[in-house]
Amino acid sequence: MKRGLLLIDRGSREKEVKEELEVICKKIKEKGNYEFSNYCFLEVIPPFIEEGINQSLTHDIDELTIVPYFLYPGKKIKAAVNESIGFQEKTDVKLRITKPMSMHKTMIELVNNRITSALSENSVNLPKNSVDVLVIGHGSKDPNARRSMEYVIDGIKPTYRNVSFCFLEIEEPNIKQGIMKCKNDNPEVLVVVFYFLHEGAHVKRDIYEDLNPALEEANLQKVLITKHIGIDDKMIDLIIERTKEVEVAN
């Protein structure tokens, strides 16, 4: 049985996003024993979904596993899945579509790892139950997206002194509100987690437009900022686990 894999990412013009996806696809191909592993985008820039699937179907494969590479369920994932499903009637290749990366213990582990790395890199030796954490996500109108964020927050809460979350856009609490809540808790160290898959425009610029003035106003004692999710072997394993769920089930 010859299998291919296609990641559907949201899309970004930042070169770092493509660079990360290329490395991720290479690792998935090797670890998952796929004939090929590639990516396409839902929006912003090509290759879009139609081009990604059509290109995948030029390969000599029996099955194509499509992975909506998103942290949250929501309208964008539904759009990606619906568009992908429409291709099944046009091909004899079996199309399988996985769950997104949400509501999985790996995401809790990844956030914990980002916090641990930030503390270590900045030589902070406090016990974790003395550390405060603020997780910044994108924001969505879909209530399932918020539940996905709360799943991660609930997973790390037992480890730290205080854990809260806020959003870059669309919903509240916004970044300023999130920082001011942390200020009221009077943290000795606050670790700000960038809960984003890629080093796109949001991570490189947009967050800082709200975060920097909020931090200046709050005048907190010590603030550390983590790296985004990016390329991580745990994420590679999660993607492959998602593929196995549908490949075995069907």
UniProtKB/TrEMBL annotation:
> What's one Pfam family here?
CbiX
Could you cite one Gene Ontology molecular function of this protein?
A: lyase activity
Leader sequence segment: none
Recorded superkingdom: Archaea
Is Membrane among this UniProt entry's keywords?
no
Keyword terms: Lyase, Metal-binding
Checking PANTHER family in the record gives: SIROHYDROCHLORIN FERROCHELATASE, CHLOROPLASTIC
Q: What is this protein called?
A: Sirohydrochlorin cobaltochelatase
Mind giving the lineage of the organism this protein is from?
Answer: Archaea, Nitrososphaerota, Marine Group I
